[in-house]
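Lecture 7 notes: from sequence to structure.
We start with the chain below.
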Amino acid sequence: MIRKYFLILFLLVINYLNLSGQDNLKNPVSFAIKPQYGIILPHSSKVEHLTHTNPYGLEIDYSWFLLKDKNWQQCNCYSKAGISFLYVNYDNPEIVGSSYNLTGFAEPFFIRLNRFLFSARMGFGVSYLDKIYDSEDNPENTFFSTHLSFIVHIDINAYYQLSSKYSLMSYAKYNHISNGGVEQPNYGMNFPMFGLGLIYYPSGKVIFPDREKQEFVSKYFFNIYTFGMIKKIKENEYFPEETTYVFGLYGLAGRTISKVNGFSVGVEYINDGGAKEEILRKGLSDDHQKVSGLIGHHLLLGKFDFSQYWGTYIYAPYKPYNFYQRYSLSYKFTRHILGGVTMKVYGDVADSFHILLGLSF
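Predicted structure tokens for the same chain:
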């Protein structure tokens, strides 16, 4: 699963680097250094005892601006994409330790003035955690149980141009780290971070070309996604540890209502091997398969689709809750082929993190 994830991330980066459009305009690059400070949210009573510290860290990113006509036509906006390395110390060295995070991101600009820019950033990547749960050596760390996990973040950013080659930025980030339900405990961590950063432009101030906005035409869209993951069920006094598999698919029918917004309805099916093992251990006869209905909103930024769904179970004899949320970030590699990641959440608790592959019609 990790290999598939890196392949998707690599293809995203390569695709962006090769976005040449139909003009000879070069896409300038920038470098940023971003110290930050934050808080940990107590989203569950199981982690509340670990949330009374203030994480701090340092982020370094490399990005390239997408200024070509082809990029502009995708959302009537300019954007940039890039890769980022983030180190976070959770101010609890004995139990929670630190994380080392590598992400890829996309960042559209919503306000562009002479010296001021305002943007939102969405990214996902992998996280290495140096302190994890251990039933004997570190039983208090209910955040993380695997060294390698996933990180998803959403940021808002404000930039002020200091000179031709430097900008000052302020930003707020909402981060979530989870192993995607591969191993328990998996309560994950939600931690907002805030800070000021310095941006360097090697080729000088970025000039955004004046382009005419494209007329919006509402369209229907139909997407089918498949996803899967490995899930480990821990050993107990009666059963050994088991590695199980979860796979599923969901289909959507939707319509765009603006260049960057759309709504959809859909159906989801999951074959949950982890639930099957739990049912077996409890001596129950419930079915481990689940079918649910989805209602979703799509934030469409060029070839990116950041989707948020409300799901309710139609058929699920063995389930923890009646409702859930699903957050997905996908990228359209070609006219019909999609790829990305998705996270299923019950309230504030992450249930599972999946790799997505899909078709669009």
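Points to note: The chain has two domains: 2-200, 220-360. The radius of gyration is 21 Å.
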